[in-house]
Amino acid sequence: MASDYSKLEHLGRVLWKIAWATIWKLLWHRVYFLRPAILRCFGADVGLINSIFASTWVEIPWNLRLAPRTTLGPRVEIYNLGVVSIGTGTVISQDAYLCGGTHDYKTVGMPLIRASITIEQDVWICAGAFIGPGVRIGRGAIVAARAVVVKDVEAWTIVGGNPAKVIGMRNDREAICVPIDGIIRKAE
């Protein structure tokens, strides 16, 4: 069976797992540039001022685009087989799972599909939410706790449930948030 990854990708993933299991775990998340700097060493396009917890997992760092002033909470998993882009001021809360890969179940061999995920700025992905492959979350949207998102979410929309459905709307003043120390605060 042929591998879906090149030898260079395999090597990069092994080196990343070693770095994540060692130095990554030792760094304090309140020193905002340290973990982003490590991600940059592995090819991520990451702003240097981000709050990323030690238990956050990024499957393939070179497929990550992370704007500044973003928070990736405890135990967040980014399974980014495709490119995952996360905008400025976005908070991904604890235990959220971003899944950028699936399989073509209609084909006998079920080949791997690498899909991108785009999360625009000022979004809040609440605790335990699942974001599926190929999804776009619009600016200022909120994905409620434990929601399962398999379709795009419009800007300024609040979605929840399984599958996620619209449960409310936000106005633009509420959505201009600045994550500071992992806490969302309205911009003055």
Task: Note down, in words, how this protein is organized.
The strands form five sheets. Strands 2-5-8-13-16-18-19 form a seven-stranded mixed sheet, with no helix packed on it. A five-stranded parallel sheet has the order 1-4-7-12-15, with helices on one face. Strands 3-6-9-14-17 form a five-stranded parallel sheet, with no helix packed on it. A hairpin with an 8-residue loop joins strand 10 (101-103) and strand 11 (112-114). With 188 residues, it is of the alpha/beta class. It has three helices and 21 strands. The relative contact order is 0.11. Helices cover 17% and strands 31% of the residues. The radius of gyration is 16 Å and the shape is globular.
Termini gap: 56 Å
How does CATH name the architecture? 3 Solenoid
What is the succession of H and E elements? HHEEEEEEEEEEEEEEEEEEEHEE
Q: What is the percentage of strand-forming residues?
A: 25-35%
Q: Tell me the number of strands.
A: 21
